[in-house]
């Protein structure tokens, strides 16, 4: 066994532990944010409204977004260390993109509720929570069962380079 392989094998369990820790924090945040947004009630005392607004904003910026970035970073490194260039991994990334969309929607809603002076009502927590549950269960199924998806019917244009030019001009160097 080469030195590099030994090094990579030794690092994988630690990186996986970090990956799981960061994504637990991220996903917990994606469940908490819709609940917190639903508590943005302008009929509350001004100080209480400011309190929940600040907790949501700072939680998003200083805890949930960094956890998302670090979960994705550790996952990205794991792809190369585990050489996981597989169909289940790419299917997982499509679902992770869904989680990123939920994350971006929450950020957009935090700003919209805070800055439109009552014009943007926060939505109920049910729909975003159900979407997150579906995405997380799909991801966990893919990553734990690692189904062989090699026979997945894909359109031909996804399976081979088509040799097309870009639809715009680019500099020669
Ligand atoms: C861009 C984001 C992500 C990337 C690139 C990524 C990539 C990876 C890779 C390469 C592994 C190692 C797989 C193996 O050793 O066989 C892994 C493990 C794992 N990932 Fe992710 N991941 C990402 C996000 C997530 C998310 C959002 C979740 C859950 C909601 C998740 C759940 C897991 C779990 C549970 C494992 C451990 C699987 C095992 O050891 O059998 N990952 N991830």
List the helices and strands and how they pair.
Blueprint: H1 3-38, H2 46-81, H3 87-115, H4 126-145
Helix pairs in contact: 1-2, 1-3, 1-4, 2-3, 3-4
This protein binds protoporphyrin IX containing FE.
Residues 16, 19-20, 23, 27, 71-72, 75-76, 78-79, 82, 84, 89, 93, 96, 99, 136, 139-140, 143-144 line the site of protoporphyrin IX containing FE.
Largest sheet: none
Shape: globular
What hetero molecules are in the model? protoporphyrin IX containing FE
Please tell me the overall pLDDT.
90
Helix content: 55-70%
The proportion of strand residues reads under 5%
**SSE string, helix = H, strand = E?**
HHHH
Q: Kindly state the number of beta strands.
A: 0
Radius of gyration: 21 Å
Number of helices: 4
- Uncertain residue segments: none
Number of domains: 1
N- to C-terminal distance: 43 Å
| SS content category | mainly alpha
What is the subunit organization of this protein?
Answer: single chain
Main location: membrane
InterPro entries: HemJ-like (IPR005265)
Family: Belongs to the HemJ family.
Pathway: Porphyrin-containing compound metabolism; protoporphyrin-IX biosynthesis; protoporphyrin-IX from protoporphyrinogen-IX: step 1/1
Describe the structure in your own words.
The chain has about 170 residues and is mostly helical. The protein has one domain (about 5-150). Helix content is about 70%, strand content about 0%. The protein contains 4 helices and no strands. The protein has helices spanning about 5-40, 45-80, 85-115, 125-145. Helix 1 packs parallel to helix 3. The termini are far apart. The model has no long low-confidence stretch (mean pLDDT about 90). The structure holds protoporphyrin IX containing FE (HEM). Protoporphyrin IX containing FE binds near residues 20, 72, 82, 93 and 136. Keywords: Cell membrane, Heme, Iron, Membrane, Metal-binding, Oxidoreductase, Transmembrane, Transmembrane helix. Its cofactor is heme b. InterPro entries: HemJ-like (IPR005265). Its main location: membrane. Pathway: Porphyrin-containing compound metabolism; protoporphyrin-IX biosynthesis; protoporphyrin-IX from protoporphyrinogen-IX: step 1/1.
